Amino acid sequence: MQAARASARLGLVAHATFSGALAWPYIYPWPQRPPGLIETAFDALAARWQPILEAFDASGVDLCFEIHPGEDLHDGASFELFLARVGNHPRCKILYDPSHFLLQQLDYLGFIDVYHDRIGAFHVKDAEFNPTERQGVYGGYQSGVERAGRFRSLGDGQVNFPRIFSKLAQYGFSGWAVLEWECAIKSAEQGAREGAPFIRDHMIEVTDKAFDDFAASATDAAANRRMLGLD
Questions:
Q1: Which of 24, 68, 123, 126 is least surrounded, with the fewest CB atoms within 10 Å of its CB?
Q2: Domain covering 2-227 assigned CATH 3.30.200.40 in the classification
Q3: What's the whole-number mean pLDDT along residues 36-49?
Q4: How many Å apart are CA 211 and CA 174, to the nearest integer?
């Protein structure tokens, strides 16, 4: 609640956060979860966040949950469980970070199509997923460098940022594109030097006209009927 007031005083319109993890220890479906366990966890999570969402609403700031493994809100389905329990609160938004989606093998471009009206913040972070005969999504307890899925500096991974920036521009996203560095190989200094211009070069100035506007003309109903062979 203090963060809501601080964000407002800084003139911010979006604030990043994590959901917390009541249900995460039970993410894998075996051993079988007792009936109602997940529902109880999300009920409790929503009850804790509801007054905080109200405080952010009073401050005029969106509360953006980073959709992140290790948190109960880790994909679209889990976000929807939470959103329903907070009454589709208008301040309940998403911090979109495609690196976490790629490592889950989730459609991070389709995610924008479905949830664009809830995306209030954007972490520009790259990742790569190279499964082998020895490990996959879960990583086999290997180090950051040895994992099949690992974070990379911008441009060194597999995330399709031209498509992401295009989709966010298409849907009118007006927030910050925030460089986040967690590369398993490259230094933070080099990542920052290369990352800032990488973001700049992907920014899209949205056009205010169609490419064929030069050929536009007023509607001529009679001409349209003649072209269609209706006269």
A1: 24
A2: no
A3: 98
A4: 23
Measured in Å, how far apart are the chain's first and last C-alpha atoms? 68
For 150, half-sphere exposure in the C-beta direction (CA atoms, 13 angstrom radius) is: 19
Rg (CA), the chain: 22
Q: How confident is the model at residue 112 (pLDDT cuts 50, 70, 90)?
A: very high
Secondary structure (DSSP) of 121-164: EEEE-EEEE---SS--TTGGG--TTTSSEEEE-TTSSS--HHHH
Classified as helix, coil or strand, 95 is strand
Q: From residue 68, how far is each of 29, 37, 74, 98, 180 by CA, in Å?
A: 19, 21, 4, 10, 14
Average pLDDT over residues 208-212: 79
209-212: long-range contacts (C-beta < 8 A, 24 or more apart)? Answer: none
